[in-house]
Amino acid sequence: MTAGSLSDEDHVIRQVPFSKQVRNGEDECIGVTHHAFTLREGEPYLSVAWCEYFDADAAQQTKLAVAQMRKVRSGGGKTVYWKSQVLEIRRSLDPHKITAFHNPDGEYECHAGLGDWPEEATLLETLAKDAIAELFSAADLD
After folding, report:
1. Which of 78, 83, 87, 134 has its CA 20 to 30 A from that of 17?
2. Which of 2, 95, 86 is nearest to 51 (CA)?
3. CA atoms of 117 and 42, how far apart (whole Å)
4. Domain count, the chain
5. How confident is the model over 47-86, as pLDDT tens digits?
6. The dihedral formed by the CA atoms of 136, 43, 9 and 124, expressed in degrees to the nearest 10
7. Residue 20 lies in a domain
């Protein structure tokens, strides 16, 4: 692993607004759309939080990463968080190759990026539907 890169075993979290969620009849989030992974115009990489930045157990890493993310990125009451392992993301996007790197941004010290990100909607749909991931709200961490 080169300096600044994330390993395949590391986990990342993506904040997902209400408009990019799949919800059931009880208004529960049951998934995310591929739009949760679409780069905005001019974005060079997909922004995520890196859990293993923190020297703690997995549950505490998740709490700390979300707390840091929430300090710099506001989210509505129905915001959810999508957490997956870097290797799982790479498998879902295969044969497209991505990079994963630590990219601290001021107070957002666990900020990371997923670079060489695909633009093809079909790949992003596969990621949204097939990647092994965990979905949770900030309230679930309390």
Report:
1. 87
2. 86
3. 12
4. 1
5. 999 999 999 999 999 999 999 999 998 777 899 999 999 9
6. 70
7. yes
